[in-house]
Amino acid sequence: MEKWRALAVEAALSRAHSWILFAAVLLIASSALSIQFRRLDSSRWSIQRLEEDFVAGLSNDSISGFLLELTREPHVAGTPQNFHTARFVYESFQAAGIQTHYADFEVLLSYPLQRSLSLLLPNGSTLSLGLKEEAVEGDPSTSNPDVIPTFFPYVPSGTVCGEAVYANYGRAQDFETLRQRGVDVRGAVVLARIGKIFRGDIVANAAAAGAAAALVFSDPFDYAKNGTEGFYPSSQWLPPSGVQRGSVLLTSGDILTPGWPSTPNAERVDLSETKLPKILALPISAQDALPILAALGGEVAPADWQGGLRLPEYRLGRGPAKLNFSYEGNLTVTAIRNVIGMIKGSEEPDRYLLVGNHRDAWTFGGADPSSGTACLLEIARGFGKFLKQGWQPKRTLVFCSWDAEEYGLIGSTEWVEQNLDMLTARAIAYINVDRSVGGPNFDGCGTPQLDNLLMQVTKKVKDPNSVFKSVYDSWCALNRNATPIGRLGGSRSDFSSFLHRAGIPSYDLRYQTSFPVYHSLYDDYNWMKGFGDPLFQRHVAMSAIWGLLSIHFINDDIIPFDYSSYASVLEADVRTLKGLLPEDIDVTPLLRAISELQSAARQINAEASSSLKRRSLNDRLMLAERSFLDPMGLAQDPSSKHLIYGQTTSDLYGSQSFPGISLALANALAKMDKSTSSVLQHEIWKVARAITNAARVLSDNFH
Ligand SMILES: *[C@@H]1O[C@H](CO)[C@@H](O)[C@H](O)[C@H]1NC(C)=O
Ligand SMILES: *[C@@H]1O[C@H](CO)[C@@H](O)[C@H](O)[C@H]1NC(C)=O
Ligand SMILES: *[C@@H]1O[C@H](CO)[C@@H](O)[C@H](O)[C@H]1NC(C)=O
Ligand SMILES: *[C@@H]1O[C@H](CO)[C@@H](O)[C@H](O)[C@H]1NC(C)=O
Ligand SMILES: *[C@@H]1O[C@H](CO)[C@@H](O)[C@H](O)[C@H]1NC(C)=O
What cofactor is needed (predicted)? Predict the structure, then answer.
């Protein structure tokens, strides 16, 4: 085009004068036109227009329609009903114009075959406990015969008969209290309530204390906080027969293929080499826990062990009542199905933003996880509308619908293992939304270089609960601390393999406060419509936040990471850590490394405003988080490789900073001698080196 114009000018010059004028007018007109077009074009797809159009296009009716379709049947991993939801997600992605495929694996799942529990009273009579969640009036889903019975997957089969002991929340300190009070837990059937730690840790603590079996119940104190009258369907609380199913595995991913993908012909380890739960265990309802607690003797339990059941008091036992408990389940290698959709980037197709949510549910998934799946489908529909108008993102956007999350983050873990090298080299960030709405309040967690973006975006989205406020305003008002953003050390959802294994910056977002019907029969569309989100406006807000965050990652010239905020967060964490450490332990290496990170972050933030070498600058931003990985993994769990954020040793869901240092510190405090304190100092050096490496990646310097 340019060449043709030049030739045209030359030719015109050699002709008559009037021709020169004519050619000049033509040239000016044509270049003005092309500038005009370009300007129109760029404003049509400017970030601001994209954001406005995306949010304006979201519809609560559409989201509610998706949720209704997804929650028609219970859809546990490995069942035909969950293959049906895979088909629905596949077709919805395709309808949006998104290139879609299935990513299948074959993994070890577990289903209940037989359960019985009876209470043997000292006077010789036997009470058989129902173990059944009762249907409620006005909600036909709750009488669906295909709902999976209440159980904990992967626990051993067998029969146990033993005296009952009450163990409060089943934490290590609760078993310690029992020991101090002389209550012998060995051979007993432990009854503990859920609510403070991951249920798998309760079962493991009971096993470690020598119990023969563990029963885990939902106390009304935690799950029906409205007396004995107010519960679903008259309020949001868990009915007395409600039970919280769920995984009790302390590992994530398929247990037969630890560290590699579970493709059909993959190597599989022997079951005997795996870390399955050691004792029989079952989740039970408040209604079934009541007669057990009523039949316990022994000391009155401490004040903070008392709960919400109608009893004069909770006692510790042991016995005199006994429990006769038998369980039979199967372990079976079963096909699961992730659905992956992709919108290719125009400028950097080999840079990925991933957005994901799991699809399998313990029952109907009204909130967990189908409220998230409904939002995933809504944002896919939103980007689909842009695609149809000729838009393409600069970078590739990948939609992920995971299977078998409920069994231990299996679908996402296997996929990350299968694609690890590509993800490590090319993934920018992962945005997880599990259950998007379980209650009224926004709750956002993420790695700290993503803090600023989350704050900016939540300021732009209207709070669905209030006319005048943004999501950000209400979120901050509820959390009086400086930053309301939580961290992602715990392994509570599918971000775990992305962050803890691949070092990919991640978010985990939800609306929630307490979500009492979690993993029960009552987590269905009708509950959501009645109590979780009656007008589906919280779903709209979540879709807006999820979509706007995505737009920035796939469209901003410079990836919106701020390592300066990472350095500040680390510095605050080190200050806290210092207060816990013995005096002879030196945190200077950490502080030095953090100040290197801080100056590298300032430098790259300054470069970002001027640099033309965007690709290399973006690569430095993208790769810095990878420096926080230790290829050897943490001492407590080698498959978890992140040195900054990891789960606490007492609770799989608990998040802590510097998990390696924390473990060494706990060991040092338990057995203070020279060798443990040198291990502790070594862990501090290790984290300091990782932070220095991140600073180097950011500042682009070989040393
Ligand atoms: C045994 O005790 C229970 C609970 O106190 C009572 O309901 C039941 O009737 C008693 N059975 C006999 C045979 O006394
Ligand atoms: C408590 O229960 C009553 C009666 O069912 C209901 O009207 C009220 O909304 C409930 N309150 C809460 C906080 O759940
Ligand atoms: C315990 O329950 C099993 C299965 O229901 C039954 O066969 C067994 O006789 C019971 N044992 C006792 C001691 O009641
Ligand atoms: C395991 O149990 C489930 C549910 O009853 C059943 O559908 C499946 O066929 C069983 N698998 C094996 C291998 O027994
Ligand atoms: C969507 O929002 C509008 C306006 O608030 C409301 O009238 C409508 O009932 C909502 N739709 C659903 C499915 O809740």
Answer: Zn(2+)
235, 515, 517: residue to mutate for ligand 2 pocket, most atoms within 8 A of CB: 235
385: left (phi over 0), alpha (psi -120 to 50) or beta: alpha
Strand partners, 335: 106
Give ligand 1 pocket residues (Cβ under 6 A).
121, 123-125
**Residue found by looking up tokens 């609380």 in the block:** 237
pLDDT of residue 5: 42
Catalytic-residue membership of 405: yes
**Alpha-carbon torsion 15, 18, 22, 27, what sign?**
positive
Mutate to test the pocket of ligand 1, among 119, 125, 127, 290 (most ligand atoms within 8 A of CB): 125
Question: What are the domain boundaries of the chain?
Answer: 1-44, 47-108+333-555, 110-132+141-331, 563-699
Average confidence score pLDDT of the chain: 92
Q: Higher pLDDT residue, 675 or 182?
A: 182
CATH class of the domain at 563-699: mainly alpha
Specify the DSSP element, H or E, that contains 28: helix 17-44
Q: Which of 119, 120, 159 to mutate to test the pocket of ligand 3 (most atoms within 8 A of CB)?
A: 159
What's phi and psi for 655, nearest 5 deg?
-110, 140
What fold characterizes domain 47-108+333-555?
Aminopeptidase (3.40.630)
Which residue has its alpha carbon closest to ligand 1 atom 13? 125
Residue with CA at minimum distance from ligand 4 atom 11:
332
* Banded model confidence at residue 609, pLDDT cuts 50, 70, 90: confident
Q: What is the CATH number of domain 110-132+141-331?
A: 3.50.30.30
Q: Which residues pair with 111 in a beta bridge?
A: 330
154: left (phi over 0), alpha (psi -120 to 50) or beta: left
- E strand spans, 253-347: 280-284, 322-343
Q: Tokens 């495929």 belong to which residue? A: 101
**Could you give the angle at which helices 563-580 and 674-699 cross, rounded to 10 degrees?**
170
* Strand intervals (E) in 310-462: 322-343, 348-358, 395-402, 427-437, 442-446
Residue 330 Cβ contacting ligand 4 at under 6 Å: yes
Q: Which ligand is nearest to the CA of 123?
A: 1
Summarize the chain as % helix, strand, coil (round to 5).
45, 20, 35
pLDDT in tens, 272-288: 999 899 999 999 999 99
Tell me how crowded residue 467 is: count the other CB atoms within 10 A of its CB: 6
34 CB under 6 A from ligand 4? no
pLDDT digits (tens, 9 = 90+) for 440-495: 999 999 999 999 999 999 999 999 988 899 999 999 998 876 678 999 999 999 99
In the prediction, which pLDDT does 513 show?
82
Structural contact between residues 574 and 594, judged by C-beta atoms closer than 8 angstroms: yes
Q: Indicate the length of the chain as a whole number.
A: 703
Any bridge partners for residue 352, and if so which?
A: 396, 427
Residue 9's pLDDT is 40
The distance of Cα 468 from the centroid of its chain, to the nearest Å, equals: 30
Q: Ligand 4: which residue has its CA nearest to atom 7?
A: 111
Q: CA 642 → CA 354, 561, 628, 648, distances in Å?
A: 19, 19, 6, 13
Residue 15's pLDDT band (cuts 50, 70, 90): low
Residue 102 near ligand 4, beta carbon < 6 Å: no
- Pairing, β 213-217 against β 189-193: parallel
Encode 207-248 in three state secondary structure: HHCCCCEEEEECCHHHHCCECECCCCCCCCCCCCCCCCCCCC
